Amino acid sequence: MARKYGHLFKGDRWIWYIIITLSLIGMLAVYSATITLAFNKQDGNIEFYFFRHAGFLIIGLILLYATHLIPFQYYSRISQVFLWLSIGALFITLFTGSEINNATRVIPIPFLGITFQPSDAAKLFLIMYIARYLSKKQEEIDSFKVFRHVLLVIVLVVGLIFPENLSTALVVFLTSVLLMFIGRVNIRYIGLLTGSGVLLIAILGSVLLNVNTDGLEHTRIPTWKKRIETFIGKDDGNGNYQQTQSMIAVAEGGLFGKGPGNSTQRAFLPHPYSDFIFAIIVEEYGMVGGIVVMGCFVLLIIRCIKIVVESSRAFGALMALGLGLSMSIQAFVNMGVAVGILPVTGLTIPLVSMGGTSLFMNSIGFGVILGVTKFIQDEKMKASTQGPGSVSTDTTGSLPKSQISNA
Questions:
Q1: Which residues contact 362 (CB under 8 A, 6 or more apart)?
Q2: Is residue 56 pLDDT above 80, yes or no?
Q3: Higher confidence at residue 115 or residue 26?
Q4: What are the domain boundaries of the chain?
Q5: Is 0.85 topped by the overall pTM?
Q6: How far apart are CA 24 and CA 306, in angstroms?
Q7: What is the pLDDT of residues 268-281, one digit of tens each?
Q8: Distance CA 147, CA 328 (A)
Q9: Distance (Å, rounded) from C-alpha 281 to C-alpha 351?
C-alpha cells in the first residue's frame, strides 16, 4: 500500500494489490453479469444485485481487515474448535439443508436472506488444522502415525463434502495432499494416497457412466453423470450448452473485449455471475482481462511461497501457503471450465464471483495470509532495529531451510 497508509494496511503489499484488483474486477463483472437476472427477478432493478454484492464485499473486506490484525498464532487453537463445528454443520446439511441444484449443501440464515455453506468453512479450518498438526509434529513427521492422523481428518471432511459438492471435495483433497507434501510428510505415504485417490476417481467415473439414474433424480448422481458424458462427448448433443455458451463468450472477447457492460452471453449463460463469471470477464475485457485475473492468483501463489521461505514458524508458513493454494486452485478450475478444458463444476472465483458465505470465508483466508506476512515484517523490523546480536535464536516450530527441496 502507499507509504501514507502503511500503518493501517500491514502485511505483504502485493497481496493487498491482489485483493484490491480482484475486488474491483468482481464488482464490475457482477454488475454486468446480473443485469439479465435483475430484469427477470427484480422487475428491471439492475442495481439490485450490484448493491447486494457490494454489501457482501464490504462485510468481507471488514472481516479481512480485522483478521489480518490478529496474530496468526491464535488460529492454532481456533482451528481445533471451528473445524469440528464445521464438521457438525456438514452433518446437518446432509439431513436438513436446503437444496440447491439437487444438493443439500446450505443452511438458510433466518432474517438475513442468505445461506451458509458449511463446506466453505470446513475447507478453511481444515487447512488451518493440518498446518497446526504438521508444524507440531516436525520432529516425527516421517512416521506413519502422523500421516494416519491427518488422513483420517481429511477423509472425514472430504467424505462429508462429497455428497453435496464433488468439485469442492476434490479441491479440498488436492490442497490437503499438497500441504502434506510441503509439510514433509513421508513421500511414500503421499504417493500411496494420491494413487488411491486417482483410482477411486476413475472407479467413480466408470460407475457414474454406467449407472441407471431412474429414481435418483433428487440426488447429485444424474448431474455428475451428465457432466462426465458431456465432457467426454458421450451425451446426446444437448448437454454441452453451458460450456458452448461460455466458449462463445471467450471467443467473442478477443484481445481487448467488447467493453464493460457489453456482454451478450450473459443472457444465455446459466449463473454468469458465479460459475461462469470468467467467461463474462473475458468477453468484456478480452484476453487481457483474463490474464490479469489469472495473474493475480499466480502472483498469490508466488507470494505465499515467499512466506514459506521467509517465515520462522512452520504453522504460519504452511497455513498461508495452504490457503493460497486452495483459493488459487479453485479459481483455476473455474477458468478451466469457462474455456472448456475441464468439466462443468460449481466452483467460483474468490473475491470475484457473487456470493455470500464463500466470499466471507475467502476474505478471512486472505486476512490470515496477510497476518502471517505482517508477523514476518515485524520480525524483520525488530531485527533491524535491535541488531543481529539481539535476534532470538528460538526456532521451535520452524521448518528446515531446505524444506522445499526435501519435501
A1: 60, 120, 327, 350, 351
A2: yes
A3: 26
A4: 3-382
A5: yes
A6: 25
A7: 888 899 889 999 99
A8: 25
A9: 14
Report helix, strand or coil for 390. helix
Give the DSSP letter of residue 107.
E
Cα–Cα nearest to 144, from 174, 189, 107? 189
Quickly tell me which residue has 435418483 as its cell.
216
- CA–CA separation, 138 and 9 (whole Å): 33
The predicted-structure confidence for 352-395, as pLDDT tens digits, reads as follows: 999 788 899 999 999 999 999 999 998 888 887 776 544 443 44
Q: Give CA–CA dist 262/281, Å, rounded.
A: 11
User: Would you say 134 and 314 are in contact if contact means Cβ atoms under 8 Å apart?
Assistant: yes
Given a contact cutoff of 8 angstroms between Cβ atoms, the answer to whether 299 and 14 are in contact is yes
Whether the predicted pLDDT of 336 surpasses 70? yes
Q: ∠347-351-353 over CA atoms, to 5°?
A: 50
pLDDT value of residue 152: 95
Q: 344 by DSSP, 3-state: which?
A: coil
Tens digits of residue pLDDT in 152-172 = 999 999 999 988 788 889 999
Mean pLDDT over residues 62-69, rounded?
94
Q: Around Cβ 51, how many Cβ atoms within 10 Å?
A: 11
* Residue whose grid cell is 454484492: 53
Q: What angle do CA 241, 237, 279 make, to 5 degrees?
A: 20
∠ at Cα 361 (108, 333), nearest 5°? 100
Q: 215: which residues sit within 8 A by CB, 6+ positions away?
A: none
344: which residues sit within 8 A by CB, 6+ positions away?
227, 230, 231, 242, 243, 275, 337
224 within 8 A of 208, measured Cβ to Cβ: yes
